Amino acid sequence: MERHISQRFDSDLEALKSQVLEMGGVVEQQIIDSVKAIESVDRTLAEHVLSVEDDVDRREVLLDENCTMILACRQPAASDLRMVLSVTKMTRDLERMGDEAQKIAQMAIALSDDGAAPGGYESIRHMGALVQKMVNSVLDAFARFDADKALDVARADTQVDREYQSAMREIVTYMMEDPRSIGRVMNIIWALRSIERIGDHARNIAEHIIYLVKGLDVRHTSVHEIEMRLNKS
């Protein structure tokens, strides 16, 4: 970001960046723990994931307050305004990622109560690893203001979507073969749905980063179109 005459303004923007990365780190660990909890049907770990949610919500509120203060007191323009607007949107996506991690943890607790599902854990493990990598990469892209790395995250989301559709087809066979397992298998389905949504939110953040760095609004745009617009910028 550009340097300013007011060192305080620079400090305010750097603080925003640090707070987003700290919140991102908390959410990233939530995701890692929730996936591990449902893989291993670990109730204790799942309950830990649920306990972190208040911290994530508190961080979102604090970031919103800081963004509002900067808008009111500094009246930022150009790239500075994009920074503040992007942060407000990114924190919303991070908070929703935390919500999805919470849902995965709740499914882990349900499986702990009802007994393990007959299958689907390999899909949880594989999709979980893909999404965890997306979240780590998108936070790194923000730390570096790297639009190309953000584009890579958007590309990865298409792979997650394909894996999700494939997993759904596989899991339906478990329900057909053993109707008595439908309730337990549904917990796996809802967890996979939450993992897929985390990927969607990671892509949203990637799009916010591209807007921040390049000034391009690429929401509701295909990966191919994003590539073309970045090449022209």
From TrEMBL:
Keywords: Cytoplasm, Phosphate transport, Transport. Pfam families: PhoU. It comes from Paraglaciecola polaris LMG 21857. It is found in: Cytoplasm. Residues 20-107, 124-208 form the PhoU domain. GO terms for cellular component: cytoplasm. One of its GO terms (biological process) is intracellular phosphate ion homeostasis. InterPro entries: PhoU, PhoU-like_sf, PhoU_dom. The lineage of its organism: Bacteria, Pseudomonadati, Pseudomonadota, Gammaproteobacteria, Alteromonadales. This is Phosphate-specific transport system accessory protein PhoU. Gene3D superfamilies: Phosphate transport system protein phou homolog 2, domain 2 (1.20.58.220). It comes from the Bacteria. Belongs to the PhoU family. Homodimer. Plays a role in the regulation of phosphate uptake. The gene is phoU.
